[in-house]
Amino acid sequence: MRVRTLIALALQSAALLLLCWSLLGGAWLDPRSQARLLVLLDRSQSVPREAADRALTEVMKAAKAARVGDLQLIEFAGRAIAAAAPTAANDPATLNALAPAATNIQAALEAALAAHAQSTFAGAVVISDGLENSGDAASALAAVRAARLPLHWLALGRPPPPIRIAQVLAPQKAQLGQRIALSVQLTGKSDRRLHVKASLRSQGGETWEVRGPVDSAGRASIELDASRSGVLRVDLSLEDFATDRVLDALPDGALIDVAQRAAILYVNGSTGPLAPSLIAGGWNLNVVAAAQLEAQADALDGYQAVVLDDVAISAASPRFWHLLTTAVRQRGLGLLVLGGEHAFGRGGYRDSELESVLPVLSEPAVVDQPAAIVFAVDKSGSMGQGSGGVDRFALAQRAVLETARALSERDSLGLVVFDVVPEVLIPLGPAPTGTLVLERNWMASPNGGTKLAPALDAAIDQLEHSAAARRMLVIVTDGFVDDAPLVGLRGRLERSRIEIIALAVGPDADVGALQGLVAARADAGLVLRVEQAAGLPLAMRTGVERRRSRVERGAIMVQQRQPLPFPPGTWRDWPNLAAYAVTRSRPEAVVAVQSQSGEPLIAFQNFGLGRVVVVSSGLGPWAPLWSQWKQWPELAGGLATWIGGSDGATTLTVSDLAGALQVEAEVRSGKGLSDAADVSIRVDTPGAQGQLLSMERVAPGRLRATLPSQGSGLYTFVISDSHGIRRHLHLRRDRAEHQAWGINPALDAWVAGGLVHRWHANALAGLRDESRRPVDRSLIALALALFLTGVVLERASGKAFGRAFGGPIVRRWRRRA
Q1: Dist CA 259 CA 302 (whole Å)
Q2: How does DSSP classify residue 85?
Q3: pLDDT digit string (tens) for 393-424?
Q4: CA distance 103 to 87
């Protein structure tokens, strides 16, 4: 055998060996067969930068020792960015884009999975402390394991400060004026003299500070007064006593719900027996006069319920009524409205914001009693724009127009303006036509003196020819009317059955003379003093509605047609009433008690989160027999219980999860766990209000829901069940990066669950064997080249080579050649 034949044989044998090696997983020059490593580097503020760079260098050295062919870097913090090379970690622009004030490990792992799907990696290494304040790392780790991407974790964290705030003990609830004690426990040691500063923030934006020294056991006790109702947020800071240098800080370290000492705000518009009965029964009431109602506007948040006992709309400003209705709708404030001479139609409730939450509507008049109304407006010089810039005549025009717009099609109106001489601007006619004329220019301007008698004669002339069931004269003046022949005018008004509503504007108006016009009969009309001209439109409108509102009087029989929403629910022997305000129930309301003619006496409804009850007769002078009734304690207490709620049967537990809050409710009845069928939970979050939670029944009497996080801040849960309405406060604290240190304890659980492997010096040693690489194309090409070279040599050497290696195949090849 010649030398060339031996060489050819050796070349073809080598080709066969290379082919077998490549099929067994051998690799040489093909980049597809090289082990590729993915490194996820935490660039958030909680990971020290220099230590992270050293850890990255360690991983790179281990990768080089393990003959890793390619290393790709993904940096992450609040988001993830794939770096072109490991040196990109030093690029400040890259760090700014990473949002280092947060950590989202889930986003980094999802970026790793996306890269692995495009080009297979043999493994991945995470360099991080594992502390996250957004995202869900555990679910992302499960997805990485499902993708069969081996993952090692190099744990790296910031060492804790030598001394810091470890625990805060504070009450969740307190009463207004109560002394509140906070206990702050520190961990670590310091040879300095320290104190803890508590910075308090009320809902109204007020702030104040209280300090407490740190004792030898590392504990600071702080006492503060709950001087403001509502939610009180407490920020804590640990400071050097001598220099006030901050050593540690804990924003929103405590949350305290400060409530009014009185659970119910009781507003007295007239004397009635309900407030004394509730106080005698142990109820905690804050009783104020209707004139003091406005002062309670900013304190509504501290009450569970409000009782308006014969209170008119004019008792408070529009701001108060807006705050009240908002509290009923959004916070679940209970509301009980009692009738009387100053409530419902007589109190100006019609079309008011208060009426929008009530289960009844205040009717301005019965449909079979159309009214003829003549407005007599003083246009003397004093009604013009004065030194204070107030144009009384313009305000009177607005008052007449607003009042006219509330009239029905069956009503009629007329307009007389006067100074020393009256002028009929609009003869008495249909109200819709007269309202259109009122909207135009009146063609009158203030000038001259004041003479009331001619104006009254002109207005009476208009009304005497009206066939309306009710005739009303509305007078607006700011002057003296001493020259008016009161006796003659009063007799003419009585003969014509004309009711008077006189509005005396300003301090100079002759109230005495105006009262003389209505002195003969108690029901002849009323005189309203309007101190400020700006209140004229509201005073006129409510005055007319008060006169037109219908009050049924006499021995009125009472019927119950639906159960009341509190036990026992139904009584049969209701005492008679002396009077009640005629109202009309809303379609969605429940009328439990009604008059014999079918008009609502006690009606209730849910409005938003709140419960609202009206008693159109009130519980005072119009219902004199009710307070002597044997069922009175149950009725009075039941009304207060239902609107005010109680501690209730539903307890709520709220836990913070990564990216969500877990809400669990346990509902108990007197016999144990309830079926929870009537429980409703709404939540106000930092980003939205009034969200209804979809609760899942996980066991008898147990409900659960997961609420996606809408950031750190206050979450207010309002629980409504058969026992009432309550609120539960929860403060979500997304741990700030600058407050994080150490390693996430969850890492141990992730390792135990097989989601990750701990990093060690030889973690990448078996990386090549673990990978599932394709056949190395460079080895196949080399094997083919060696084989063909051997064939060429064999052909030159003749038959000896053919007999030695692959003879039949070579001969067949020769014949073809």
Answers
A1: 4
A2: S
A3: 989 999 999 999 888 888 999 999 998 899 99
A4: 21
